[in-house]
Design a protein that fits this description.
The protein is of the alpha/beta class. The protein has one domain: Alpha-Beta Complex (Spore Coat Polysaccharide Biosynthesis Protein SpsA, Chain A). It is built from 9 helices and 11 strands. It has a 7-stranded mixed sheet. A two-stranded antiparallel ribbon has the order 4-9. Helix 4 packs across helix 6.
């Protein structure tokens, strides 16, 4: 398995024009071809689309949640509703339009490490064969604890809930199919990362985190005007730097 075996998708909010330009410059430098999922912007969504695709009542949220009620996650913000629809659309396109066995799903604020493809290929050589999904970014500062790190080990199995934000995740086709079927049959109840976590748990998927991560979220680094929302409010870590050529790309 190598990077060429992955179909790449980016969920993108179209008003963020400069962000897309940054991504395209980055992808061009790294030799990456990706499909941008640009429909379902929050301004375009209809009440009927929300009704048909979501189960956002409090009872359903509490039934699915492993930790109980959180005012941060319920009710969902319009941006989260839109983002969920874009993720679902990316899954649909992959299943119906791609013949590849693996999917690389990105959000539109990703900052890839330099020489991303060659570095990821090295890590893919040692990914456990039982993986269902793998997170390669450092969303919200989530890391494997130093006590768990082992020399020469890069992929760490995570117990559920196993999400690490949804900015950069690798998925097997079988995993995408199960997640998409679940969304279609039972509706969406959470923002994208927690929604993924719910289906991982439902289907008993094996989820791994990469250490060290090779993707950062621009919304967490201070590079972009938007910021990563978190339980405590604004999450930002300006110490995160994964490329030396950011000035050239921005």
């Amino acid at each position: 398995m190598k990077f060429d075996d992955f179909e790449c998708y980016v969920v993108h909010y179209t008003p963020l024009v400069e962000r897309k330009k940054f991504l395209l410059r980055q992808f061009d430098k790294e030799g990456i071809i990706a499909t941008f999922v640009e429909n379902f912007d929050r301004e375009q969504l209809s009440y009927q689309q929300v009704y048909d695709n979501f189960k956002m009542n409090l009872w359903e949220y509490q039934r699915r949640s492993p930790t109980g009620y959180s005012p941060y996650l319920y009710p969902m913000k319009p941006a989260d509703v839109s983002n969920c629809m874009k993720h679902k659309e990316a899954f649909r396109r992959f299943l119906t339009e791609s013949k590849k066995e693996y999917m690389f799903l990105m959000e539109d604020d990703v900052i890839l490490c330099e020489n991303f493809v060659s570095i990821l290929n090295e890590y893919l050589r040692c990914i456990p064969s039982d993986w269902s999904a793998a997170f390669i970014g450092q969303g919200a500062g989530k890391h494997i604890s130093s006590a768990e790190l082992r020399e020469g080990v890069y992929w760490y199995h995570k117990d559920h809930p196993a999400d690490r934000c949804a900015d950069s995740v690798l998925l097997k086709r079988s995993s995408v199919q199960e997640i998409y079927n679940g969304m279609v049959s039972h509706g969406i109840a959470f923002p994208p990362d927690h929604e993924l976590s719910f289906w991982f748990r439902c289907y008993g998927m094996k989820v791994y985190w990469l250490e060290p991560p090779i993707v950062a979220q621009g919304s967490q680094t201070g590079y972009f005007e938007s910021y990563q929302d978190a339980l405590s409010g604004k999450y930002e870590d300006k110490s995160i730097r994964v490329r030396s050529d950011m000035g050239e790309l921005l």
